[in-house]
Every structure is written in structure tokens, then in C-alpha cells.
# Entry
Amino acid sequence: MTDNSGSASKRFPSLFEVETPAGAEGWQKLYPYYAHISEERRPFEEGKFWFFDGMHNPDPLYPFDMIMTENWWVAVSQMSTRVWALPPAIGIDHRVINGYLYISPNAVTDPAQIAERAEYFARRAGHYFENWDEIFASWKTKAQACIDELKAIEFIPLPDYEPEHSVTSHAGTYSSLDLLKKYNRLIENMLTMGSYHFEMLNLGYGAYLTFREFCQTVFPGIADQSITDMVSGIDILLFRPDDELRKLAQLAVDLGVDEVILDAGGPSAVESLAGSEAGQQWLAALEAAKDPWFWYSTGSGYCHADPVWMTDLRLPFTAMLGYIKAIRAGTDIRRPLENILARRDEATAEYRALLPTEEDRASFDSLISLARKVYPYVEDHNFYVEHLHHSIFWSKVRELGELFVQNGFFEHRDDIFYLHRHEVYDALYDMLIGWSVGTEPRGTTYWKPIITERRSIRDALARWTPPPALGTPPETITEPLTIMLWGITQETIEDWLGVDASSATEFRGVAASAGKVRGKARVITETDQLYDIEDGEILVCRITAPSWAPVFSRITAAVSDVGGMMAHTAIICREYGLPSVVGTGFATARIKTGDMIEVDGNIGIVRILEAT
Amino acid sequence: MIDRPHILWIDEPSAVGSPLLGGKFSSLAQSVAAGLPVPMGFGITTHAYRDFIAAAGLADEVRRVRAAALTLRPEAIAAETRGLIEAIHTAPLPPALEQAVRGAYADLNRRTGETATAVAVRSSGESEDLAGASFAGQYETYLWISGADAVIAHMRRCWAGMFGDAVLSYRHEGRVIAAEGDFGICVGVQRMVQARAAGVMFTLDPLTGDRSKIQIETCWGLGEGVVKGDVTPSQFLCDKVRLSVLKRTIAAQPEEYRFDADAGGVGLYPIEEDRREQACVSEEEVIELATLAKTIEKQRGAPQDIEWAIAQDGAIAVLQVRPETVWSNRPARPAARIASPIDHVLARMSGKAVATAGKAGQ
# Structure
């Protein structure tokens, strides 16, 4: 890319040129019509820039899991377009290509429209900034109420005969409508939390980005992590689950049950512990920690298949075993909160003192105080929404799946995820017909072959590597989330355009956490492969989820295809002090498990030193 | 003699800030006192220079030549100074002065445990103290000088160097500095570092003036090439607060300055093939250097320009510390005027350009 004018004329492949991988023919049936590209809109769709959202959906979408992407298709977009009226940007469009989500930010270019929107925006966003703390406090209350309402939804088997009280209370509605309502409530509950999710997020990022931009002006080249460190809190909820494990490990040693847990080597310790009084005491502490802290997803929370601590105790136990061993070796495993806070304040004061003028110091003070005010929301919403709420949501969908299994629709409760939520509504109605009429519903023969076919299509899609971008590169990127979360800037696009994925041995990405190491790569494309990781390996994945925390004590660095400095991952990577480069675009496509690679988290470069 | 010493060691308490050592060497004495790793050495003081000029009867000639420099074109100066320079090289030294220099060199040998310690001999002028006038590159430095006779010969060269045409015509802010007073000169004699790598560092980003950075330039061998500019250095831009490397540019280096025993001097010699493309300092050494630079700036209270070397055994030596002159003399301008943070954030999210004063390269 020596030609400066080249980027404008250079293009990514068209969405219409993407070929269906062998064995995945007919994949379109898994997704709703509005998520597909179409010939009649070809010029519009080809003229836009589309990038792969591997951060939230590294794997091909399950049809039911589309509820998450469809939620934010509306929930994020309406904030920019209709609620805040963000002057330079409207919503973010979505398309599903070969089962993977591609998204496209949209700019507002008409100056008159920008001016009109600016008036709405200043008034509305100003109101939120002025009243941030109160709004956040009430946000937490309503988020908790939403979670409580979700917990209360229970999918129970339909009775052979309506209970007596249905008749004596003269309700006039029965178990069939109850079940249908519960399903509607489940979906509405999800969309409610999905809407809360973005109520304050864009503004939070905006305040942070503005402080970051100021820092980059006065300290050109300053590392993003230096800026984040000045702003971020230390008592954020995302660290709590791991803190609970540290406490449980300490308690195990204090109670003298550490040996039993080490011997069991995993969740089977629970049975061994039940026999002793000390063991029971520890188990009670474990139970107390579980809700809410074990509603912790090992993925982004956007996919039902990401294991959750609550229902898969392997990850928390792996981490606890490590902590118990560390305590026995005499290590203090508590997070040095006071030191972290003192270092943060010291670094902030140092940067401030290095500013050239008093006026700059005043600007720095006012921008950092606003950034620090909004940041608890940016950090903590993630636990409420993606971990706590969404993990419970998936468990509720499985409960419903179980009901379908009992009625002969599915072989396995997780088969429900091969149906889109609108198809589930149909299937549920079919089930109610069967229950009401008393004859066999069509669903008992209809869905099983479809699910078998869809499973094999999705497996074929999973073996395909989605390119990082498609379509026409944009002239400018103005949408704050695109820059903040996905780390996509003009430079990223130039890099992607300049790289030949099949031959690249060096990848540029976002320097998410400092340090430089060499080591053997471990490429993870499915969450289950996490258990294959060996000590000292470098994790290479589409996206490193923060809740993979327990494996972070075994790896020496992390590399991901997607993500910016605010990706959920980056926070934990820095916490663990591991070098990390995110947003490389192609790393999982080119790097193979066993390759010797070098990760330079200081400047955001990953090199293949020796391919296997 | 006590109040007119000819020799002052840089680790003597009275050396710190002493005008007798000139700008460069009194600054080194300050570094020694602050505990920095400075190679041992002594200054042949400005008294020594003045006593020699007086004893040789050259004082009037010195005044005449300086006055003449004001009006002469640079290319005409050499003809005026020829006689004076000849006399500085040949006039007998006062015996006490000669004894003092030979005695100091013998003491240095005792301190190093060597018989003929290799030293660097360089000028350290009073005129350098004039704020802002760095006299960058105007004085010769003589490297790898061994033996008392050679030290004395190069001391005379340094004295004569005061009357080189470039020095006499050196202008700072339009003024001919040499003509502004009867400046004396100190000659510094300092143990050579057998440098594996060397270079300079600034406690700010010289491109932008950003004080949160430390820029380190490095090369294989002695640092002369980096200062002279005939070796392209590798560059490391470090964050001063976090002491981390933000950017590195490794330059391939075909030749290095080193001492060659056969040639009996320092020269530019080819580097072996496999070493050329390698960084001459490790990541840890870069951090160690940056940490040192941060310490020095804190001690001095202002941005500094530091010459350093790393010996074969990995020990870091500070060779010179002086105030940074380019950005430090420039009035600071605020980067942005932000009245209300909320209005500013709203304006930025609206895609409005907010006036920012030009910073870089102004």
C-alpha cells in the first residue's frame, strides 16, 4: 500500500461473491428473510462496508441465538438514529453471510440533517450526562427487576387435566395460554434487558473516547492501556467471580479440605466433601457464592453454547485448584487492590504533571472526571447483562427445550437452538394444538429431520473462515461503537486491504496489553477446546472472552482476530499482565496449533516464527 | 595553590557546579554526586588554562583574536589565528601545571588498576553555560588516548580548539558568543567505556515536545556516530510514566566506531553480517535506560539530553547530561480549551472539530 490514493479504489470482495462451503447448501433456511442479502437490493448492499462481528459471534449463529444479534440490530441502532439522534451516525445494519454476522455502520452526511440532529442530541445526551449517577442507580434497580422477572418464568409440563383451581377460579384461560404467554414474556424479557443494555452505553463510550482523544493529542502515541488504566475502576463486578474463587480457595485451606479438593481434581470434589462437617461448611460457602457470581459465561454471553460456571463447574474448579496450590506454596493470591489503586493515582498524577500548560491540566481534570463518572456503567453493565441475565436466559430456553423433548418434538433439549424464535412460537402452538385436541401434533415428525439437516449445515459453516470485511471501504468511520468495541479504524481497514490472508506471517492488531513473548500457539475455535490448552502456550482465538480468566493463568499471551481496546477481553488480559494483541483479522485462519509465534503487545504485532 | 587548583576530580564535593570545570564537566560532577554511573575522570581546570596563557604571554593575542572574530567572515578567521594556535601547541607548560596533570593521570591509573588507562579528552567551556548556547559539535573529543604525554598533547589541542573558525564564529540568537567575554576552558579527562552499544536519549519526544516520552537512540560501538550523524541509530520511543516501549525502529548498521589496537585509534569499522540487523540493546536495557533518564530528569528538574554507553559487561555509563534546549526554550501552548467537559464530549460525538492549537512541529 504505497499508493495513498489506493485505499479508496481498493475493495473487499462483494457480499454476493462469497461462496457457500460444501455441505452447507441451503444454510439460508436457518435465518429470517430480513437477515439475508438480496438481488433486488444488490447496489445498496454492495456499496456498503461490512465487517465480521466475531467479537460477539465468533462461531456460526444458531438460529435461536439470532435473538441476541436481532436485539442489538434494533437496540443499538435506535439509540443512534431515534433516541439520541447522534448527529454524524445512524444505526448499524446486519446481514448473515454463511451463518456469520456481518455489520455495517451508517454515517449521516447531509449538513442540514446533522445540524437538526445536533439539537436533539445536545439536549437529550446532556440530560443523561448531567444526571448520570442517579440514572445509573435506577438502571441497576430496573436491571435487577428484569433479572428477577426472568428467574420467575418457569416452563412446566402441560397437565393431563387442567388443575381444579383453573375451573373454580373461573379464569377462563388455561395452561395452553399460560405457556404461550410465558414464552412471549421470555422473549420480551430478553428484549427488555437488550434495550437497557444500550441505554447508557454509547454515551459512556463517547465520554471515554473524548478523554482518550485528548490524551492522544497531548501525548501522541500514548498506549491505550495507559488511558484505560487511568479511568478504570478496581472494584468492577467482572472481577468478582474470580475474587469469589480466590476466597473459596483460601477457605478450603483454612478448613483443611484443600487436600480433598486437590485429590478430586475437579467438580467431583463436591461428593467427597459432603461427608465431613468442614466439607459441608465449604460447600455451603460455594453455594452462597454461586448466585449471582457463577452466572458467568465463558464466552461473550451471546451464544447459548458458551459454558456458564453455574452449569459447568470445570472452569471454576480448575481455577480454584490453581489458587489452592498457590496458597500452599506460600503465595498471597489476593488482588493487591490498594497497590493497584495507588499505582493508578500515581500514574494519573504523573501524566497530568507532564502537560505543558495549566490550561491543559484543567482540561485533563475535567475530562478524566467525566470519563471516570461514566466508566462504572461501561464496566459493570457487562456483568448484569451478558453474564447474569443472558446466562439465566439460556437456561430458561433449555427448560422450554426440555418440554419439547417430553412432547416428542426434539431428541435433545438443546435442539431448540436450531429453531429461530419465531419458529419456536409456531412449534409451541403446534404443541398446544396437540395438547388441546388430544391427538399427535405434526411437530413430532416435522422437526427432527430439519434439526439433523441444520446441525450438519452449521457444522460445515463452522469449518469456513469468515473474511474480516466485505464490500466497499468507507471514507470515514464516525460510529463510536465501531471504533471503541470492534477496534475498526481507517488504519485497520488499510491493513486488511493490504494483507493476503493466505500468505501473511505477520499480523498487525490493537496492542491491548503490553509485553512481548514467544511460544507455541494454541488455536481455539470452539469453547470446548479450552480444556486442551497446555501450560505456556499462546492462546489464538477469534475473540478472547474475559471469563476464560481461569485459563489465563496457564497461557503466556493471547491473540484474537477481532476486538478493540475496550473488548471485554482486553480488561482481563491487562489484569493478568499478559501480552495481548487483538483485532488481527486473520490470526486464526493462518496460525496453526503448534506454530512458534511471537506476540508483541507493546506495538500490536504477531509474527509466525516457525510454522509446523 | 589551594584556591587556584589545576586539577579537580569529578567525585570531589567541591567539583559540583564548579565554574572551574566548565559546563560539561561540572554537570558530570553533579551526576556523580547524584549517584549516577559516571566513568571516573578529572578536569584540567580553567585556572590551568589561564595560568598557561599568562605564562606563555598569549593573553593579549587571545583578546585581539576574539575581537577580530566579530568582524571577520568565517573563512578569513584561520589566517588571524594561525600564530596563536601554533603557540598554544608549542609554548612550555608551567612546571607545576605539568606536574599536576601527570600526577592526576597517575592517580587515575591507580584507581583503574591499569598502567595506561585509555581516556577521552574533551573541552568543557565556560561559554557553554550561556543558556541555550549548546555549541553542539563545535569542540573535538579525542578518544582512546593513553599515557601522560598523549594526554598533555591533547589538552593543548583542546585549548587550541577554542580558536577554531567555527567556534569563533558560532552564533546563537544572532550573537557571536566567543566575542562576549574572556572565556576560559576546562579539559576533561575521563576513562573510556569499552562500549558494546551507546547513544543519546532525550527526556521528551524531540519531534513533538511531548514530555510524557523518552526517546532513546542507539548504535553498536561507541556513540560518536550518533552524535556526528554518520551512523543511523535505532530508535526507541518510551512512555515516561509507565516506562514501557511504545515504538521501536531498528536500523541496519553496517559499520561501528570502535578502538582498533593495530591502527592505534578509534575508527569506523565494518560490523559482522549477523550483528548488523540486530538491535544493539535488549528490551530490558531500553527500560533500564529509560528509567535512568527519568531519574536524571527528576534530579535536574527539567528535560535533559543524555549521552550514555553500555559496556561489554552490560554496565550502563552516563557520559554527559545537559539541558534540552529546543523545546524547553519554547513557550508552551495549551492543546485545547475545554470550558465544560459535557459540552466538549457532546461536540466531539456530534463530529464537530474542536479547535486544538497546533502542537507538533510548530
About this structure: Chain B has two domains: 7-191, 195-323. Residues 7-191 of chain B form a domain with the Dna Ligase; domain 1 fold (CATH 3.30.1490.20). Confidence is low (pLDDT under 50) at residues 129-133, 354-362 of chain B. The first helix of chain B runs from residue 22 to 33.
